[in-house]
């Protein structure tokens, strides 16, 4: 019938349903103290200060009243959402609450900065994690396999012999080869940086080469002759060089440990019952058996 499609009727029905839910969940006719919402002087001052920081002026009475009414609205909806169980079986809500618990324990764990004595002990136990990687400076000559075909490697070996025979050998000779889409010269690059540019195979070979002209060395681009120049060997840094990084890493360790201690302290108050047989059956089930 036509009246069932009227928007006003929909609005009335929705309003009645919400009122019924509110009444059932929170006992709307009671005068329980838990139904009281008090906006204190400290909260009002907090709202006013926040407004002042944002707008660089104090709020008017109407603006401040709007902030207070917004706070009341938030509290009403929050309490009634809890009352009707909207926080239950909601993965997003659960995860946010878990995260807030973890952040609370982390904040408590890092109230004080670590001492130099603690940081130095931490550093001594993990020196290899802070090792400075080796670096190498090099120039290369590129030979395009697509253009030269099977002759590319032979051309490279011929050019290598000529470069080594020169007196003195040049430190760069890109004109001996083909055009290359990247640079021909690189200063103090780490293995990871070389790997990102030329690939793993090229980087591993490069850092094993002796100074001077070497090759041929293969990359994903083709064949290269490489002039190995300055080498900076890997080393353990001094404490002062990595102190800031140590502070971050040490505090991260403390936060992780605080989370574990929090969980271990709380889980002891629960009777955890896991269906081990069901767990084992599920673990043995092949992925295609899961619909």
3D architecture notes:
By secondary structure, the protein is α+β, with helices and mostly antiparallel strands. The chain has 3 domains: about 1-90, no CATH class; about 90-130 and about 240-265, no CATH class; about 135-230, Chitinase A, domain 3. It has 11 helices and 4 strands; from the N terminus they run αααααβααβααββαα. The protein has helices at about 5-25, 40-55, 60-85, 90-110, 115-125, 145-150, 150-165, 190-200, 200-205, 245-265, 275-285, and strands spanning about 135-145, 185-190, 210-220, 225-230. Strands 2-1-4-3 form a 4-stranded antiparallel sheet. β3 and β4 form a beta hairpin. It is elongated. The protein starts with 6 loop residues before the first helix and ends in a 7-residue tail after the last helix. Residues about 1-20 have low confidence and may be disordered.
Can you give me a brief rundown of this structure?
The chain is α+β, with helices and mostly antiparallel strands and 291 residues long.
Write the SSE topology.
Blueprint: H1 7-26, H2 41-55, H3 61-83, H4 91-109, H5 116-125, E1 135-143, H6 145-148, H7 151-165, E2 185-189, H8 191-198, H9 200-206, E3 212-218, E4 223-232, H10 243-267, H11 276-284
Antiparallel strand pairs: 1-2, 1-4, 3-4
Helix pairs in contact: 4-10, 8-9
